Amino acid sequence: MTRIAVAGAGAFGTALAVALCETRDVALWGRDAPAMSAMAQSRVNPRLPGVSLPAALPVTADPDALSDAEVVLLATPAQTLRAFLDDHAPALGGKPLVACGKGIDLRTLDGPSATIRRALPSALPLVLTGPSFAADIARGLPTALTLACADRTEGARLQALLATPALRLYRTTDLVGAELGGALKNVIAIACGACLGGGFGESARAALLTRGFAEMQRLALRLGARSDTLMGLSGLGDLVLTATSEGSRNYRYGLSLGRSEPFDAAVTVEGAATARAAARLGGTLGLDLPVTEAVAELVEGRTNVGTALQRLLDRPLRAEQDSAD
Question: Active-site positions?
Answer without folding.
Answer: 185
